[in-house]
Amino acid sequence: MSRTDPQLAELEQQIARTREALGQTVEELAAKVDVPARAKAKARETAARLREAQDHTRSRVTQAAAETRSRAEEAAAQTRTRATQAASRLRPGGASEPTPTVPLSVESGSHRARLGPAASSSSRRVPPPAVAGATAALIVAAAIVAARRARRA
Fold this sequence. Notes:
mainly alpha; 2 strands; DUF3618 domain-containing protein; membrane
């Protein structure tokens, strides 16, 4: 029986390996059949991926908002400077050149009266284009700041 003992031992080892492989196969099949567990695992993966995307988007938005805020503050400062300069030029005695005036229509455009800067308080002065642009930029910047403050509140 010396021949059967080694053959028997090898057969027993082969049976043990087969049982182990069969056990692993059964576990894999059970995992595939366990739909609720697979759904939960997939939900966890998706939630983690969405949280990561949310964090990335939040950081991008925060950075863009900071850059926009910085640009708006810079534009507002430039607009204030330009408006101050323009206002000093428009003040009586502060301008080196005479201020242009707009002809006023008396009756539906049939009669026009030209008034000088000191004629009356009803005369309208035409601001230089830079002042008009600076004023518009200041209004836009103020609207942006107000909208952001409203969102935060």
